[in-house]
């Protein structure tokens, strides 16, 4: 920069307000090893105290291009879909960006810093690595790859069952296909055909299920079973299995003799002989097992021959399958059983060489001493029985002189008693651990805060209620295959009083799979002790034709309907005409709903129970607006599209299902935490639909791209951040239910600041989609 004047001016170079160089000889501004940071506008200013003048110049630094990022709208897709590819770069001069197909042909080219293209996926050749390149004449150029994975039909499952049977039912066993088609297996479809006519279709939505039984087969008939595997998108080709029913040999019996090898020291064989048969009977309860006892024991580990008595005809092969599966899953509490050792043995006969013959001599030490001890104990017990009978007869003399007492004895004061195991039809030991009771520990348990009845001691829990003691009054809720009725029951837990109950039962169009789901729900509830925020089991009817599950009656219905009716919207899923809908819910009530549900889920999580369908529709509202988590198996109205999104012919509550469960089929208690975050959205929007007006089939892709529901305008940022923590991609980063309960309960006093009901927009959340 040359400048002249009198006096001779000083020259200065300025960039971004900072002095780069100055002086009478600062005509030149020199750059060594110039880089892109030197680019920009420079000002040359001349000053000789008479006048100041300046001139600007711009330096443009050329540098090779760099691709900063390549993205796709979906990393997994299938034929018929369209994906969006985007490539971002920098570089001077502006680079030329190009996209190339997996086989190498160019798709599009532009001179810009960003290129976005739509790629229709028409065939297998359209899947693989797509390449974005950037070039501007300088070296080196840049490129980046991104892969589009293809989802196809899953492979065929492998069936492992007999092709010729001598029975009226068949249990099909299978293994899932090794090829899932690029997406996790989500379930199976099984079709039973007779002479090419479909007679039964079963939709199995649990991908972990690998067995299914078809009862009521006809003799000397050819059947065909077709098994289809399903992933998130497609249904695979069927595995076909032909079955012939023959009746040349009778294979059903009411008394079945079996043998099993238990990996225990021989010194424990008395304990094994006493406990193992009853465990086996409880596991085989579905087949009508009424009792079981040991016939013979031998050493070498412990080899046990035992007899199982059934109250109906039974297919022995099916019993063996169930017992072997239980052994593989370690369901014989405390006993390690060899699954392959469980077999049928011949019926014992007198004087014959059979497994029922007298016990073989054990190589255990002190065997004679053990027999002597047993003899002494038996004699002592006999004397004790005689003494008790004598006392009983003596006491009858004074019966008429006893004072009359009220028969309503407190439950805490009743000593637990065990019914005769041969008469016990309800397999309680299968669902709860027996605990040792001593005299110091038989005091009644204190009632937990908020509970409205005292917990039953595990040894007194007998849930079965005679069918004639249950009266169904009216239907108050319906689903596709199940329904809930209001009714009464007499004789719950031995009490002569009549109790109002809710009765869960199946509709006439329900399948065997639906019945098993309700039985699973019943089994789950049997494991639970009373909790104020979890629905309570009161009894069941399993011995009649219709399965009934009796739970506590809650008059206000489900939480979703309760919220919607509070603002005048119609909700008829769970409707009791005798109950008027509540109106004008306060922010404090909403906060109370939130922490109560978290408390109930904290209890279920501690019991290792994964709900998998936590939503406002599956929470009931009881007296004093107490929320109770329910529905451990029977979903609310599965015919409604936006709750249970179609996956081929299966269904999934997509808008409530966790990120990892949608993409990979993985469920944990942290998956329930995700669903709880969606439930909070339902509560704080007073029954609003999550992801409003969004197609459920696109939810997974949106979540994969980082989308989360926006904050409702009337909800404080602190509450919204709790919801966002529930929706973290990494399940381990989500809070526990205990943390959620404590945090929300502490925030309850700040409810007015956290939920501003004045800003609530009824119109915004008026779109009811379920």
TrEMBL record:
Kindly list the residue ranges recorded as spanning the membrane: 369-390
Domain of life the protein comes from: Eukaryota
Q: What is the scientific name of the source organism? A: Pocillopora meandrina
Kindly indicate whether the keyword Protein biosynthesis belongs to this entry.
no
- Keyword set, alphabetical order: ATP-binding, Disulfide bond, Glycoprotein, Kinase, Magnesium, Membrane, Metal-binding, Nucleotide-binding, Receptor, Repeat, Transferase, Transmembrane, Transmembrane helix, Tyrosine-protein kinase
Q: Which GO terms describe its molecular function?
A: ATP binding; metal ion binding; transmembrane receptor protein tyrosine kinase activity
What residues does the Ig-like domain cover? 1-60, 65-146
Please report the name of this protein according to its UniProt entry.
receptor protein-tyrosine kinase
- Residues forming the Protein kinase domain are 470-754
Q: Please give, as recorded in its UniProt entry, the membrane topology of this protein.
A: Single-pass membrane protein
């Amino acid at each position: 920069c040359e400048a002249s004047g009198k006096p001779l001016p000083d020259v200065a170079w300025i960039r971004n307000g900072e002095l780069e160089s100055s002086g009478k000889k600062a005509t030149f501004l020199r750059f060594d090893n110039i880089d892109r940071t030197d680019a920009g506008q420079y000002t040359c200013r001349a000053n000789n105290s008479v006048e100041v003048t300046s001139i600007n110049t711009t330096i443009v630094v050329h540098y090779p291009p760099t691709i900063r990022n390549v993205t796709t709208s979906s990393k997994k897709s299938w034929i018929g879909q369209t994906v969006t590819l985007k490539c971002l770069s920098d570089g001077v001069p502006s680079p030329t960006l190009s996209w190339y197909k997996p086989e190498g042909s160019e798709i599009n080219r532009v001179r810009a810093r960003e290129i976005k293209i739509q790629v229709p996926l028409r065939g297998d050749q359209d899947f693989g690595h797509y390449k974005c390149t950037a070039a501007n004449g300088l070296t080196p150029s840049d490129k980046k790859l991104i892969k589009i994975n293809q989802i196809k039909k899953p492979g065929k499952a492998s069936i492992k069952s007999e092709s010729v049977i001598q029975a009226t039912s068949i249990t099909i066993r299978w293994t899932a296909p090794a090829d899932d088609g690029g997406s996790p297996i989500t379930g199976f479809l099984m079709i039973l055909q007779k002479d090419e006519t479909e007679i039964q279709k079963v939709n199995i939505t649990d991908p972990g299920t690998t067995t299914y039984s078809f009862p009521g087969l006809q003799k000397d008939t050819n059947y065909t079973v077709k098994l289809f595997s399903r992933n998130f998108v497609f249904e695979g080709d069927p595995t076909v299995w032909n079955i012939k029913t023959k009746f040349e040999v009778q294979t059903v019996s009411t008394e079945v003799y079996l043998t099993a090898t238990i990996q225990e020291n021989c010194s424990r064989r008395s304990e094994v002989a006493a406990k193992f048969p009853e465990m086996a009977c409880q596991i085989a309860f579905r087949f009508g097992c009424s009792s079981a006892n040991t016939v013979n024991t031998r050493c070498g580990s412990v080899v046990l021959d035992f007899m199982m008595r059934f109250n109906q005809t039974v297919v022995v092969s099916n019993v063996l399958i169930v017992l072997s599966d239980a052994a593989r899953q370690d369901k014989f509490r405390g006993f390690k059983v060899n699954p392959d050792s469980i077999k049928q043995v011949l019926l014992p006969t007198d004087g014959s060489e059979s497994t029922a013959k007298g016990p073989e001599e054990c190589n255990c030490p002190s065997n004679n001493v053990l027999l002597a001890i047993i003899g002494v104990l038996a004699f002592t017990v006999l004397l004790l029985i005689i003494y008790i009978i004598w006392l009983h007869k003596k006491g009858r003399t004074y019966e008429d002189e006893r004072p009359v007492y009220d028969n309503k004895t407190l439950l805490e004061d009743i000593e637990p008693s065990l019914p005769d195991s041969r008469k016990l039809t309800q397999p309680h030991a299968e669902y709860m651990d027996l605990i040792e009771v001593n005299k110091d520990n038989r005091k009644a348990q204190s009632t937990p805060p908020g509970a409205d009845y005292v917990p039953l001691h595990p040894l007194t829990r007998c849930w079965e209620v005679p069918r004639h003691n249950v009266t169904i009054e009216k239907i108050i809720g319906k689903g596709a295959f199940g329904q809930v009725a209001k009714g009464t029951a007499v004789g719950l837990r031995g009490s002569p009083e009549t109790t109002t109950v809710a009765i869960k039962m199946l509709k006439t169009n329900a399948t065997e799979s639906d019945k098993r789901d309700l039985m699973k729900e019943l089994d789950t509830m049997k494991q639970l002790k009373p909790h104020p925020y979890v629905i309570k089991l009161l009894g069941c009817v399993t011995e009649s034709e219709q399965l009934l599950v009796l739970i506590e009656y809650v008059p206000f219905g489900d939480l979703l309907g309760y919220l919607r009716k509070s603002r005048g919207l119609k909700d008829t899923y769970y409707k009791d005409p005798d109950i008027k809908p509540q109106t004008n819910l306060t922010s404090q009530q909403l906060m109370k709903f939130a922490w109560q549900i978290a408390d109930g889920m904290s209890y279920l999580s501690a019991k290792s129970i994964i709900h998998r369908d936590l939503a406002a529709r599956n929470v009931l509202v009881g007296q004093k607006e107490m929320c109770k988590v329910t529905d451990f198996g029977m979903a609310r109205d599965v015919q409604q599209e936006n709750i249970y999104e179609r996956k081929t012919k299966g269904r999934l509550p997509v808008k409530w299902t966790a990120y990892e469960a949608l993409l990979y089929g993985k469920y944990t208690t942290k998956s329930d935490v995700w669903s709880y975050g969606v439930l909070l959205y339902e509560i704080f929007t007073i029954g609003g639909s999550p992801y409003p007006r969004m197609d459920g089939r696109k939810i997974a892709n949106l979540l994969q791209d980082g989308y989360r529901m926006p904050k409702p305008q009337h909800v404080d940022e602190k509450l919204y951040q709790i919801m966002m923590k529930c929706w973290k991609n990494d399940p381990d980063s989500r809070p526990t239910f205990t943390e959620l309960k404590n945090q929300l309960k502490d925030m309850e006093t700040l409810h007015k600041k956290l939920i501003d009901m004045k800003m609530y927009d009824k119109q915004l959340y008026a779109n009811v989609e379920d």
